[in-house]
Write a structure and sequence with these properties.
With 244 residues, the protein is an alpha/beta fold. It has 8 helices and 11 strands. The N and C termini lie far apart (49 Å).
Length: 244
């Protein structure tokens, strides 16, 4: 049976079966994402004409969700960046199946070098769904807790901050960066956001826009979903607005 998601107004939940084998999937009428992930694109508050960068885009679930809010006739476009060629191919396949080629462009590149790839102030919105330890996925991948070392987390924090640093110059004034991860560690979430803001007075934390069902989890402007809240992946979402 298929029911409406309790987490995202864009989601349908199937208790069993393989949706990727259905005609709806093949015809590009649906795609698959965890319910927590579906909260991310709406936090960008996208308008139809916007230029959007998805800086760590593969496999393209959030890219195609972003594209839903764009209108190619009004100039709207999402640029999907990923560092691996085989992952770019995955995004392209998703985009083609969903018939969104008019609104999505894929680019092979490193998110820590965005400032060298694109001109200053070229995007209205930027999504940094950052590489992370993935500890929010323990519900689906319980072995993950045995494969992580402390050094992994400090190395990841440096990458996360390098990406935010790099994309920040390519954001227009009044633009929004949504920084999200699928981890539950403060070192990769609130600490990263606070370190970035302390170095960038031109940015302010803007309260995350989420549906009513998730509002009780918004604390100090950010949202941290733990797996037990909705039986979904653990997820962190924050929004940074560039004031000047």
């Amino acid at each position: 049976s298929i029911t409406s998601s309790m987490v995202s107004p864009f989601g349908l939940v199937s208790e069993k079966g393989n949706l990727s084998k259905t005609s709806l999937f093949e015809r590009g009428l649906l795609t698959m994402q965890d319910e927590s992930s579906m909260l991310v694109a709406p936090t960008l508050k996208i308008e139809p004409h916007h230029q959007v960068l998805d800086a760590c885009a593969a496999p393209g679930g959030k890219t195609t969700h972003i594209a839903l809010f764009l209108d190619s006739e009004k100039g709207g476009k999402v640029t999907a960046l990923d560092i691996y060629e085989h992952k770019i191919k995955l995004i392209d396949e998703n985009v083609a199946r969903l018939k969104m080629e008019d609104r999505v462009e894929t680019v092979l590149g490193d998110a820590t070098e965005v400032h060298q790839t694109f001109p200053r102030e070229s995007f209205d919105r930027i999504l940094v769904d950052a590489p992370c330890s993935g500890l929010g996925l323990m519900r689906r991948k319980p072995d993950i807790k045995y494969t992580k070392e402390y050094q992994d987390f400090s190395g990841l924090q440096k990458i996360q901050l390098d990406i935010l640093e790099s994309v920040s110059t390519c954001l227009k004034k009044n633009g929004i960066i949504t920084y999200s991860t699928c981890t539950i560690l403060e070192e990769e979430n609130q600490v990263v956001v606070n370190k970035f803001l302390s170095k960038h007075p031109e940015f302010v934390l803007e309260e995350v826009f989420v549906p009513k069902s998730v509002q009780k989890l918004v604390k100090d402007g950010v949202v941290q979903i733990l797996p037990h809240h909705f039986s979904t992946d653990g997820f962190f979402i924050s929004c940074l607005r560039k004031q000047k």
